[in-house]
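Lab notebook: predicted structure, single chain.

Context: the supervisor wants predicted structures on file for every construct in the current expression panel, including those that have not yet been purified. This is the next one on the list. No modifications to the sequence; it matches the entry in the shared construct table.
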Amino acid sequence: MRILLVGNHVLDRRKHAVKFYGMLSKHLRGRGHLVEVIHPGAALERTRLGVLRPWLAAIERRALFPLQLRGAAQGFDLVHICHQEDAIYVGHTAGVPATLTCNDVLDIAAAEGKIPEYRGSNAFRARQRKTLRYLERATHVVCSSWKTSRELGSLLELDRQRRLVIPAAVEVDSSAVSAECIQKVREDLGLAEGEHYLLHVGGNQWYRNRPGLLRIFRMVRQRTGSGLRLVVAGVPLTDDMRQFVAANLPKGSVIEVANPDDSSLWAIYAGAVALLLPSFYERSGWRIAEAQSCGCPVITSNRAPMTETAGPAALYIDPRDEAAAAEAIASKLEGLGSLRNPGLENAKRFHPEAVFSAYESFFLGVLRTRRVTDVVIAANEAESVSTQSREG
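Prediction complete. Output recorded below exactly as produced.
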């Protein structure tokens, strides 16, 4: 197959999206397919007109890149748009079949008033409603979770849209979770021999529930009477959160690690008592799969897609009942290690070989239904097709 991947705009900060289409292109090429990636806004990488860049980006995103895509797509069998926010490009592939990955519809649902905690500004709601209209044009969509598939279906109510659930891929370098790497990150974190820590990874978005995380952690410490610490990796805490920590927790009990690189983060996962993720919502829950891939037990909210991602290998809590959550964690803290092996087994579902094999089959299926006279046969179907030909 000849596949053109549409990556995110160069000014967008979607780190996970970049990682996704990087892995997708690598694994498809490894399977013998010709794959190229095209980005909206590539010309802006050389532009130094700071204040004008957002305006230029809007022009390029909506007017110039669609023209570029129409020309580029003609040399390919299929175009895959790697993020739902770029659904605007579905109708600009010059007749070449277009497919799309939809990780979540959280922002769209918020704009539609389905999430009472957050609706956003008028501009935000208008932008998300446009994205929903573009999504209506997509006939073949990969959703990263069943939750996303169900929610997208309820928003669109389209019978003609084919949706397939393929989870997000997680790729962890096993050498990064060695005993030596774990010991090094412990030293970097300032942890003494025998000190234990819970880990939280993410940002300060409202749905990540970081204030609740800190309150739950405080109660866990009170109930256990231990010197348990909390490592917060990713986006730094806000000033309000730091003030809560200073007023309610011993100095040094919360350790911030701002935006660690992958290798460091994997080692931090591997050395943790557990990942604590008491989110109200999650976009795909891939941090859970990443933690399990590193042998880190998971404590997370008892709602989808967290339950869907973690499967039976997690301790589930109600993020709205913080006292009960803290009690459950404190009572089972010493036994959380029993979740390591089940978590590793569950994480196999997110291994790139499994995920991108499913993507390959999906792409082949789209082309088979599109090109009856030019059928591309998958390796595992070659024997059955050959048998049918001989029988005919």
